[in-house]
Design goal:
This protein is mainly beta and 233 residues long. Helix content is 2%, strand content 46%. The protein is built from 1 helix and 16 strands. The protein has a 5-stranded mixed sheet, with no helix packed on it. Strands 3-2-5-6 form a 4-stranded antiparallel sheet. Strand 9 and strand 10 form a beta hairpin. The radius of gyration is 24 Å and the shape is elongated.
Length: 233
């Protein structure tokens, strides 16, 4: 990889000199092309990918992937007219990736659920993988004190089977966006998702308030808005 200077000295007349040249691919990046299956996303839509290094044959650790624990790096690209997004100059190896739609990897929006898959990348080579598309819904939460003032609280998210899921809450203001993992951002409604349609449950706790459990329903392609009023201890 890269360029190198080579000086050639002309041999005597009638003599042919063979010069072996070895191409070193170390440092040549791999390319990953993601092809979205049955996508209705428009060309130009942003796609973000987080890369997690794993050993070959490792068992999935979905919760760690959801929370971006151990993520080594992230890349973002835009969808072309063929429903493909290309990521170039990647290090080779065995990776578990999480694909997020409608924004960057760090800050995504919309109703398409993140997809997780394993990829093998080789230096100087291109790999194409199909990414399943599944839509869900989102939620918008407001937490209030007994007096009606907006408040913060620690938050945990559980599905209908009682399995806990990673929770990233984001407060959207006209010119800013603030987010925290597992905590309601103060002084604003908090968005989170996307989540699969069905029944979910939030557990909210605060030092000066009673812990409360709040069931809510996620519907396909909709934003479920609800508020919770905390009770003082």
């Amino acid at each position: 990889a890269g360029a190198a200077d080579l000086t050639l000295v002309a041999p005597p007349s009638g003599i042919c000199t063979k010069i072996p040249v070895e191409f070193n691919t170390v440092g040549v990046g791999a390319t990953l092309v993601l092809e979205l299956a049955k996508s209705d996303l428009a060309a130009g839509e942003s796609i973000g990918v987080g890369f997690f290094p794993i050993a070959a044959g490792a068992a999935p650790w979905q919760r760690d992937t959801e929370q971006a624990r151990g993520v080594l790096f992230e890349r973002n690209a835009t969808l072309d007219s063929s429903n493909r997004a290309s990521f170039a100059d990647l290090p080779g190896g065995h990776w578990r990736i999480q694909v997020r739609f409608g924004g960057t990897y760090a800050r995504s929006f919309g109703f398409v659920l993140p997809a997780v898959l394993d990829v093998d990348l080789a230096a100087g080579m291109s790999s194409t993988r199909s990414v399943p598309m599944e839509r869900g819904g989102r939620a918008r939460l407001t937490v209030l004190t007994a007096s009606g003032a907006q408040s913060t609280a620690a938050a945990r998210l559980f599905d209908g089977a009682g399995v806990e899921h990673a929770l990233q809450l984001m407060a959207l203001a006209p010119e800013t966006a603030r987010e925290e993992p597992g905590r309601v951002v103060l002084d604003a409604p908090n968005d989170f998702g996307p989540l699969r349609p069905g029944t979910w449950r939030l557990e909210l706790s605060s030092m000066w308030h009673e812990t409360v459990e709040v069931p809510f329903e996620i519907k396909l392609g909709e934003v479920t808005e609800f508020s919770v009023q905390l009770k003082a201890r």
